[in-house]
């Protein structure tokens, strides 16, 4: 199994412990990201993840390799959902096994933070009032893009 | 002039109404290409940050474009 995966199927949170079980490890940390029913004051009914899978998988694998190298943990994996998710569904799981707990916590935090910041994954929230919006993509008015304008 | 395939994702796809297009362009970098595309697709101008990839590798906005490149414009990401 790859250490980073995108899946359109429901994630089973109970398989990762066995997958990473290691006699050399005294610590196991797992982060479960759930779909919650509100964001910035709005009631959220469901979520939709769009993923550009070829690059998400490649970059995701790179993030896990970085975490293993940087924090010296024995093993780590991450699975992220695509498609339509309901409230309380699992959106993402990060699991880390390590000889000691500090490195396991740090590596887990690193993987989820980098996953949110670097992977080509987009989240569309569907609200109670019937509207839907891409998260982090609020309009700022024409001409306000901060994409570098150098070397045009 | 170069032929470049441009792909749009998520909010960009919805703003442009297309998933991809092939453009014949004098733009030398993704930044210049994005600016050019935004003149045709006004909705692209209204986002505050974004990522770019070339031929399935994350790139930066000032990388030199080559004939036949596939440029992927990613609106602000929101995984997790």
Write the layout of secondary structure elements.
The complex is a heterodimer of chains A (about 150) and B (about 80).
Chain A: E1 4-7, H1 16-20, E2 27-34, E3 38-39, E4 42-51, H2 53-71, E5 75-81, E6 83-86, E7 90-98, H3 101-118, E8 121-127, E9 132-134
Parallel strand pairs in A: 1-5
Antiparallel strand pairs in A: 2-7, 3-4, 4-6, 4-8, 5-7, 8-9
Helix pairs in contact in A: 2-3
Chain B: E1 2-8, H1 10-16, E2 20-25, H2 30-40, E3 51-54, E4 57-58, E5 70-74
CATH architecture of chain B: Roll
Shape of chain B: globular
Subunit arrangement of the protein: heterodimer
| Fraction of helical residues of chain A | 25-40%
Structure class of chain B = alpha+beta
Q: Average pLDDT of chain A, to the nearest integer?
A: 92
Key descriptive features of the protein:
heterodimer, A: 152 residues, Aldehyde Oxidoreductase, domain 3, 5-stranded antiparallel sheet, 4-stranded mixed sheet, 9 strands, 28% helix, elongated, B: 80 residues, alpha+beta, Ubiquitin-like (UB roll), 5 strands
Describe the 3D structure.
The complex is a heterodimer of chains A (152) and B (80). Chain A has 152 residues and is of the alpha+beta class. Chain A contains 3 helices and 9 strands. In chain A, strand 3 and strand 4 form a beta hairpin. Helix content of chain B is 22%, strand content 30%. Chain B has 80 residues and is of the alpha+beta class. Chain B has one domain: Beta-grasp domain (Ubiquitin-like (UB roll)). At the A-B interface, helix 2, helix 3 and strand 8 of A face helix 1, helix 2 and strand 4 of B.
